[in-house]
Amino acid sequence: MSLETSSILPRQNLTFSAASLTVLIAFGASALPVPLMSTWTREFGLSTAAIGMTVLLYVVGNACSLLFFARLSEVIGRRGAVFVSLLFGLAACAFFLAADSPAFLMAGRLLQGLACGITTTAAMSWCVDSAPPQRSWLATAVSSSGPLAGFVIATIGAGIAIETQIASTRGLFFSVLVLELLVSGLVFLASETVTTKSTKKGILKPSVMPPPGYGRRLALAATGFVGTSALTCFFQGFSARVAEGLWGVDAPIAILSGLVYISLVLPNALGAFAAAKFPPLKVFAPVGLLYVVTGCGTFLSVAWRLPELFIAFALVCGATQGALTAASFKMLLEGSRIMERARLLAALYLISYMGTCIPNIVIMLFGKSAGLDAIAYGFVLWFALTLAALLYFLRAVKTERAMKEVLANEERREEAREASDAGRP
């Protein structure tokens, strides 16, 4: 099965570009705090708990958007919902520009989470709706790796800008504000793909139940997303701390924290693009196993203070992470219809963010006692649980598909027998 895309759409390339750029800018903006966290820690005296709170509020914002605005793009259209996400992004920039205490940073992260949550359901669905029919795999590649590509661009740019003093933290967020205004112009010119709006009332009612028949597929996809996004979320808030542990506090932490994050995220995007063309169920087992092995190596390298080994493991782990998320995304949306996608993505990402909260909440609860060694060994356990769940749900999905194939074959044989009986004299 393949993703259903619009075969005839006015300004199709412009629409796909607008949707893709929305994903890039929303998640790119949410990555800016990664290299800036060390600067804010010195400026505002952020504690480990405060850093964890910024991460958690970003996740909470995402979860609230996915829970309460899942159907927004079905009611007001993809364009209208994307405009709402851009407004949240602009408001977040305003808080970061005016920041003079940790409370402003936390408010900005919450608003970024709200923006990214709506972007997940509306802009990613818009990507799938408007992808060129001849290259429908682009929808999977952009939607699954677009956020990470935005992370890479923002992290590299911000790290270099701060260390070389090309721009201040406020200058960076002013640049994001301008870019979001420009993307808003492209969105205004793009075509709407939801031509039949939902007439159901109660947009703010939680509505993320998947359509019938997607239960096992959602469980498998969510396992892939939860198991991998926990790493991305952790390194968003703690890349600077990991860099200090690996290279020492006297090293150029802003650049090195960007290097830590990019080592995981850059190959992630490449792995997602590579895996988008392959049958997803054939990708899960080998890639999942390699992901768990290299993930354990990544965190053990942190515990043992081996920066070179950390970079090597993180590069491979990032590629397998991207391949696993792309396979999860593609498998879930195979054969989906336009009015099903927003709910499917909302359910997938809501489960993902809820699962992602677990390690960060544990870190916050332990506070100062949660050293790098304890965090590293905790993530080794996380990887073991991820692999077990992944193999369990993969078997369930394959069994379900095998049963459907058996039933379909029996129906075809029955139809053939009926046709043969009808043809007898």
What does this entry show, briefly?
With about 425 residues, this protein is an all-alpha fold. About 80% of the residues lie in helices and about 0% in strands.
What is the name of the CATH architecture? Up-down Bundle
- The CATH superfamily is MFS general substrate transporter like domains
What class, by secondary structure content? mainly alpha
Biggest beta sheet attributes = none
The low-confidence runs, each spanning 5 or more residues with pLDDT under 50, are: 1-6
Q: For the record, give the distance between the C-alpha atoms at the N and C termini, rounded to a whole number.
A: 40 Å
SS summary, helix count: 13
**Can you give the mean pLDDT?**
85
Order of helices and strands: HHHHHHHHHHHHH
Shape: globular
Rounded to the nearest angstrom, the radius of gyration is 22 Å
